[in-house]
Amino acid sequence: DAKTTQPPSMDCAEGRAANLPCNHSTISGNEYVYWYRQIHSQGPQYIIHGLKNNETNEMASLIITEDRKSSTLILPHATLRDTAVYYCIVISFGSNYKLTFGKGTLLTVNP
Amino acid sequence: NAGVMQNPRHLVRRRGQEARLRCSPMKGHSHVYWYRQLPEEGLKFMVYLQKENIIDESGMPKERFSAEFPKEGPSILRIQQVVRGDSAAYFCASSSGHPGLETQYFGPGTRLLVL
């Protein structure tokens, strides 16, 4: 699976949009971009995933660049409860179900 | 629709005792995965099971650790003769179909502390 690179930490003001970047320059054609988050002392929570089109659900939006080498997770109106470590991972469906979480980005939402 | 359930949420054991961790997958899910998160480290895959079958246990330590997913009841991760290094958070995830095609949903975890 392709390696991902994320900034170690970001801050966001409550009520503002949080934009979390992820680089995955070695991604291949059959690999999906997945986002999970882990709030302190809780299990990882699935957020969203996509292949090449932008995706939106009730939690977030995922913007994938046309060349698929990077993506951005957008939390449109961040709340204090969104403070968590966010993980961007690339999964080659059909061949690898062993999820590997790197360091991720610690998003701190400030009042 | 209940999510993945794990119990106990916290477990304290003395060295040499057995730890038994339970995981009930989401309704309709037949694939279960166990992961371990050591303090200040990322999640590491341990084992993947379907009902009554171990599909991949490549991440399991060779000794003292075992897992099962019986026809009836929850999946069990068993650690025999625990040592201090087993202290960690153990997470279970489940998916509905082919493991490479379906999203894994995680439970709240069991935090094991070995004294």
What does the model show?
The complex is a heterodimer of chains A (111) and B (115). Chain A contains no helices and nine strands. By secondary structure, chain A is mainly beta. Chain A has a five-stranded mixed β-sheet with strand order 1-9-8-3-4, with no helix packed on it. In chain A, 33% of the residues are buried. Chain B has 115 residues and is mainly beta. In chain B, strands 2, 4, 5, 6, 9, 10 and 11 form a seven-stranded mixed β-sheet that branches. In chain B, strands 1-3-8-7 form a four-stranded antiparallel β-sheet, with no helix packed on it. Chains A and B meet through strand 4 of A and strand 5, strand 9 and strand 10 of B.
Task: Write the SSE topology.
The complex is a heterodimer of chains A (111) and B (115).
Chain A: E1 9-13, E2 18-23, E3 31-38, E4 45-50, E5 55-56, E6 61-64, E7 70-75, E8 84-92, E9 105-110
Parallel strand pairs in A: 1-9
Antiparallel strand pairs in A: 2-7, 3-4, 3-8, 5-6, 6-7, 8-9
Chain B: E1 5-7, E2 10-13, E3 19-24, E4 31-37, E5 43-50, E6 53-56, E7 65-68, E8 75-79, E9 88-95, E10 105-106, E11 110-114
Parallel strand pairs in B: 2-11
Antiparallel strand pairs in B: 1-3, 3-8, 4-5, 4-9, 5-6, 7-8, 9-10, 9-11
> Structural class of the secondary elements of chain A?
mainly beta
The number of helical elements of chain B comes to 0
Give the rounded overall mean pLDDT of chain B. Answer: 92
| Model regions low in confidence, pLDDT < 50 over at least 5 residues of chain A | none
Count of alpha and pi helical runs of chain A: 0
The largest interface is: A-B, 22 and 26 residues
Sketch the topology of chain A as an H/E string, one letter per element: EEEEEEEEE
Share of helical residues of chain A: under 10%
Largest sheet of chain A: 5 strands, mixed
Termini Cα gap of chain B: 37 Å
Number of DSSP E strands of chain A: 9
